[in-house]
Specification:
The protein is built from 6 helices and no strands. It is mainly alpha-helical. It starts with 19 loop residues before the first helix and ends with a helix.
Length: 123
């Protein structure tokens, strides 16, 4: 289980099922509880707000979203010079190479929404 409480691997003897395949197929916004109905489907009008919701689900157990606090995302985005969503998306694609971070989980549209939100933290 990742720090964000997503179950990564099955434990057959205990009946624990991995959530990763379902999340990658249906999307984290579709399967996570407590996601507002208006954010379950990404549109042009809610892209950044949906991205923020994804960040809350997948990232907030380890990161703060401002420029201060515990491993702040705003400061990280600035330190890495991630001024646009494409640059952020490239970092999200590389997460599996960081042993202390889980990979991004979700659909391609969700990854783009998360990247748009994180890029908006650059100031």
């Amino acid at each position: 289980m990742y720090a964000n409480q997503i179950i990564a691997k099955e434990i057959v003897p205990k009946g624990v099922k991995a959530e990763v395949p379902v999340i990658n197929e249906k999307g984290i916004l579709a399967v996570a509880p407590f996601v507002p109905k208006a954010l379950r489907e990404i549109t042009e009008g809610n892209r950044k707000e949906a991205g923020k919701m994804i960040a809350l689900i997948e990232c907030s157990s380890c990161h703060a979203f401002g420029k201060s606090g515990l491993r702040p995302m705003g400061a990280l985005v600035e330190r890495l010079g991630l001024k646009d969503a494409d640059a952020v998306e490239a970092v999200l694609d590389a997460l599996e190479g960081y042993p202390s971070m889980p990979p991004f989980l979700g659909t391609a549209a969700e990854k783009k929404a998360l990247a748009a939100y994180l890029a908006s933290l650059y100031q």
